[in-house]
């Protein structure tokens, strides 16, 4: 069944009347389409725009610029991944997140709906940082995070593929750093 709160008239607080549709009912195909479209918007807005651009990449580029010298091997390594980050995120802020900008129209939100979506975003991003300390969090290691999710019953193709990609990236970084440093601990003590 699909429970849809966006199918009826909206109240001033943005909530709607819940409509339940089950397989075989007249609006089942439409309900599936609305669900897939909503999920796509959610992933784009929360995981990509908010999580990747406005959170992670901002932290990364700020850290690299403030903490690593221009000739530091790790900064040189990260340069292609952070190139134009500030300009891209500035454009996203101006063109996608502001009221009466193109963002709410692209995502089919009212300005109020966009505000509500962004207000919810920090609680929806799943990256390992949301894991409470009582359960060993926050978890920054993708492999440990994937294991944590599996124990919680979350075992999806997305997480399996992201773990494979993380392992490839981790090995690539280790090989790169080994070229410059004799041990894995050596970069920590570099001025």
Automatic annotation (TrEMBL):
GO terms for biological process: lipid oxidation. The keyword Oxidoreductase applies. One of its GO terms (molecular function) is oxidoreductase activity, acting on single donors with incorporation of molecular oxygen, incorporation of two atoms of oxygen. The keyword RNA-binding does not apply. Residues 1-14 have a biased composition (Basic and acidic residues). Residues 1-191 form the Lipoxygenase domain. InterPro entries: LipOase, LipOase_C, LipOase_C_sf. Keywords: Dioxygenase, Metal-binding, Oxidoreductase. PROSITE patterns: LIPOXYGENASE_3 (PS51393). Transmembrane segments: none annotated. Residues 1-23 are annotated as: Disordered. This is Lipoxygenase domain-containing protein. It comes from Zooxanthella nutricula.
């Amino acid at each position: 069944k699909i429970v849809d709160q966006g199918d009826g008239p909206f109240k001033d607080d943005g909530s709607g009347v819940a409509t339940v549709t089950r397989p075989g009912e007249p609006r089942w195909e439409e309900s599936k389409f609305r669900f897939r479209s909503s999920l796509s918007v959610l992933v784009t807005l929360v995981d990509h725009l908010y999580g990747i651009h406005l959170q992670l990449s901002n932290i990364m580029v700020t850290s690299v610029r403030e903490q690593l010298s221009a000739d530091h091997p790790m900064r040189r390594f990260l340069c292609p991944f952070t190139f134009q980050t500030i300009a891209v995120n500035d454009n996203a802020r101006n063109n996608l997140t502001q009221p009466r900008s193109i963002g709410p129209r692209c995502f089919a939100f009212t300005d109020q709906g966009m505000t509500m979506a962004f207000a919810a975003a920090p609680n929806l991003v799943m990256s390992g940082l949301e894991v409470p300390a009582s359960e060993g969090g926050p978890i920054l290691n993708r492999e440990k995070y994937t294991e944590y999710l599996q124990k919680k019953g979350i075992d999806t193709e997305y997480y399996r593929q992201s773990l494979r990609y993380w392992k490839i990236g981790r090995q690539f970084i280790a090989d790169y750093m080994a070229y410059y440093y004799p041990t894995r601990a050596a970069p920590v003590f570099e001025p």
